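Deliverable D2.4 — example input (structure tokens):
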């Protein structure tokens, strides 16, 4: 048994376990089984919470974001309905109130974490011809690292569409690589259906279907490519037709103001590079090997898994990288790309493995990549980088809720989390779109003049702003019809409507 593969597997296992430890620390710091913690684990998570709440309560999901309550529903239909089904049933069976919706919903994301890791392990473990305990450990470590590592971070325990979309794409690739050579037609139909489910969670997730189509094109399997294309286009077209105009406008962003920023894109790319070192370093070695070795080049080109992975990387680079330059983007835009990077790294490693051992340089490179990964996680666990505890959010939110509970309805607060139904019961929810202020600045015609127009009309009986001092104006509205009441709250600037 090779000393090289044993050492690489031990490093990968330790790196993976550190990643899992960090994930568990974060989850433990967002959980209290005696109290529903009110906090946010990913950007604008409250928008998804509100949308899931609407489905559970039988309200229309896709609304006009330019009309009251100026809320945007930006993901695809299956995300909201799947989370609503899981969360709604769980809340009912456990006899819990709506305040537990965020916690229960996050547990459904953990199901996606486990599903994604399992699918990735099925893919990776079949790549090594002479598999042994060490190659299985190596594959297992890579599979778990994919859905628990630094790139995933807090997204493993958040109420968002990203992890399920990624997990379904991984499962689609697993099905394709396992059955394509023996049953190509049935396989591409299954892949089309699973990839449709991924798209139905998050509409940008067309990476696996794009990679499969490009693979079939390169292999000149015209029949399978035709069937895959027709099935996919039919599913998309039928859904868009049945969904109706508000649905189409929402998921196609046909009238949505999107702002791109070079600084945001470069930050996200730097984050990707720093958080995927186990894959990235190996890909560099494989690239050099491809250039220098004609024998390895031939093996690479003949290998279905590696070619499919490269197709996935290309598709993701063409779609995810430009999209990651928009101001609302974060690491989540790269989740599927990270899977295809890992698939290429593991597939290339399997090809280069000879008699159960890695070429020496490949082994050293892999150890180096995992060492970077471990060092980064130790910094976070040690409190030198990153965040592992969000409980202060809950403390702040509950202090603010005590103030808001005493105020007359309808009320408006510029912290959208407080507008969730269980945070300000009896109030009309106003979890405004994360792009609301950007779209207002861009001149979008919001009905009733937006929040500013409603304030000017005296629609709200109370206003509450984060901080101790109220702003002179808000959303273009003068606040002259409201009086600052410092006696109402210690943590927020409260203003009550002056009665005529």
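Example output (designed residues):
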């Amino acid at each position: 048994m090779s000393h090289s593969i044993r050492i690489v597997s031990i490093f990968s296992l330790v790196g993976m376990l550190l990643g899992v430890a960090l994930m568990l620390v974060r989850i433990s710091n967002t959980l209290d089984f005696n109290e529903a913690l009110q906090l946010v684990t990913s950007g604008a998570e409250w928008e998804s919470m509100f949308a899931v709440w609407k489905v559970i309560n039988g309200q229309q999901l896709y609304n006009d974001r330019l009309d009251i309550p100026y809320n945007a529903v930006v993901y695809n239909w299956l995300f909201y309905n799947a989370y609503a089904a899981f969360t709604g049933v769980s809340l009912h069976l456990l006899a819990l109130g709506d305040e537990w919706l965020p916690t229960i919903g996050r547990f459904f994301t953990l199901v996606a974490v486990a599903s994604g890791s399992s699918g990735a392990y099925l893919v990776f473990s079949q790549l090594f011809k002479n598999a042994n305990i060490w190659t299985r450990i190596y594959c297992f470590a890579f599979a778990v690292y994919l859905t628990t590592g630094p790139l995933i971070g807090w997204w493993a325990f958040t109420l968002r569409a990203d992890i399920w979309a990624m997990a379904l794409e991984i499962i689609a690739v697993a099905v394709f690589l396992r059955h394509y050579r023996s049953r190509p037609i049935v396989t591409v139909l299954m892949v089309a259906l699973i990839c449709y489910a991924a798209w139905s969670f998050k509409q940008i997730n067309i990476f696996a279907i794009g990679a499969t189509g490009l693979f079939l094109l390169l292999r000149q399997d015209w029949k399978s490519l035709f069937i895959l294309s027709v099935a996919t286009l039919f599913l998309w077209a039928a859904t868009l037709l049945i969904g109706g105009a508000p649905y189409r406008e929402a998921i196609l962003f046909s009238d949505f103001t999107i702002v791109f920023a070079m600084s945001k894109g470069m930050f996200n790319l730097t984050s990707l590079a720093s958080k995927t070192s186990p894959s990235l370093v190996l890909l560099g070695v494989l690239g050099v090997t491809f250039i220098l070795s004609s024998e390895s080049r031939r093996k690479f080109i003949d290998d279905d898994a590696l070619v499919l992975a490269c197709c996935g990387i290309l598709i993701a680079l063409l779609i995810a990288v430009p999209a990651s330059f928009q101001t609302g983007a974060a690491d989540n835009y790269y989740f599927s790309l990270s899977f295809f990077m890992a698939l290429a790294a593991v597939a290339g490693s399997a090809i280069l493995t000879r008699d159960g051992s890695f070429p020496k340089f490949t082994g050293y490179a892999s150890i180096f990549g995992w060492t970077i990964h471990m060092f980064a996680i130790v910094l976070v666990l040690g409190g030198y980088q990153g965040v592992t505890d969000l409980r202060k959010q809950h403390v702040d939110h509950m202090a603010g809720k005590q103030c808001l509970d005493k105020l007359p309805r309808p009320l408006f607060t510029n912290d959208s989390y407080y507008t969730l139904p269980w945070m300000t019961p009896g109030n009309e929810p106003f979890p405004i779109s994360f792009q609301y202020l950007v779209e207002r600045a861009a001149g979008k015609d919001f009905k009733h003049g937006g929040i500013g127009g409603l304030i000017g009309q005296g629609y709200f009986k109370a206003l509450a702003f984060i901080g101790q001092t109220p702003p002179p104006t808000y959303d273009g509205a003068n606040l002259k019809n409201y009086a600052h009441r410092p006696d109402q709250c210690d943590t927020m600037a409260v203003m009550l409507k002056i009665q005529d």
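The CA atoms of residues 78 and 474 lie 36 Å apart.
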